[in-house]
């Protein structure tokens, strides 16, 4: 089973990667920048596997580059531990 098959699994996977990046000393801006490139790749190359991924893809495609960066930043915030 792929982490993309379930949105909850995707969020857990993303949270783990964000935590690893933070432990390695990456800044929040750097993490959000990487998230933007991952989001762009997923939107362009991966078929959504569930409703949540479909919604994210549609939001991504509707947004400007700046809005896409905001969406990526919000995803990082959503899975980051306080």
UniProtKB/TrEMBL annotation:
It comes from the Bacteria. Gene3D superfamilies: Protein of unknown function DUF3243 (1.10.760.20). This is DUF3243 domain-containing protein. It comes from Calditerricola satsumensis. The lineage of its organism: Bacteria, Bacillati, Bacillota, Bacilli, Bacillales.
